[in-house]
Amino acid sequence: MSARTDTEAASNAKSSGITPSSLKATITQKLEAQYVDIEDMSGGCGAMFEAIIVSPQFVKKTTLARHRLVNGALKKEIAAIHAWTPKCYTPEEWERKRAEEGTGMPQGV
Fold first, then answer.
1. Which runs of E-coded beta strand occur in 3-109?
2. For 2-22, how does the pLDDT look when each residue is reduced to its tens digit (9 = 90+)?
């Protein structure tokens, strides 16, 4: 359930300890990610996240293997949230996708 107020959302995120920035830091460290974008889809309560993850560790892996790799890296965090939707790309796939959309790869992680 989404938080009813910004104060409630901040309190919920603090109690779980799961924030977009904490997820991003863990993914960047454990998966050597070159780009990570995490969006809190739960209205701020920290229960539902979508992510775009670009990592060379995804090369030659199926979608299922990529998701398992991410889920393994975030095992503790995933246990504390309601929904987690990662979109995983190799650097080459991400460059191709961004080129097709005409936006290029954002700088930084």
1. 35-40, 48-54, 83-89
2. 445 555 544 544 556 889 999
For residue 13, give the nearest of 50, 43, 51 by alpha carbon: 43
Virtual CA dihedral for 51, 81, 7, 23, nearest 10 degrees?
-40
CB 44 within 8 A of CB 7: no
Q: Give the separation between CA 80 and CA 84, rounded to whole angstroms.
A: 10
* Dihedrals phi, psi of 41, to nearest 5 degrees: -95, 5
* Beta carbons of 105 and 93 less than 8 angstroms apart: no
According to the model, what pLDDT value does residue 9 have?
A: 47
pLDDT tens per residue, range 40-62: 998 877 789 999 999 999 999 99
Helix (H, G, I), strand (E, B) or coil at 101: helix
